[in-house]
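Hey,
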Amino acid sequence: PKLDLLTLEGLELESVDMSFFKNNPNLKFLKLSNNKLMDLPVECFEKNKVVLTIDLSNNLFSRIPFMTFKHVSKTLMGLNMSGNPLTTWSGIYYLEFVNLERLDLSHCGLESVPIYLLSGCKYLHILNLSFNKLTRLPSLGNNLRIREIDMSHNKIRSLDKVIFNTPHKYY
């Protein structure tokens, strides 16, 4: 099939069979927001080598399924996990999103962001961490490509002036 954009939003999906993805190898843009998904099969993108954007916002993921993205980690440019009750960072050590430009983790109830989250995203330009429970700005490590970070509506009480010596734009 030639399908490259698929929108399955608001369908109350609880699972997606792995064969569904294998039968659509040209898929580039996937929107599965506003469903009841808690996980995706680990090998679901095995045949999809060129996925560019995945929107899993407003589902029931308690963790980002990093190992699920291992086959598309070199092509993925946009990942939206906003509105999921993220509680763990497990699996993040094993994968780097080398071309990820946009990451949305807003409305996830996050209390912290591990330093290694951003170090594996060398081309990250836009990071949305708004509407969480963060008490400090995340470490940007050596990631100097980030241009916009939205940290609005968190619990940050003080700012470190050193963080603003870099060419980043905070909201």
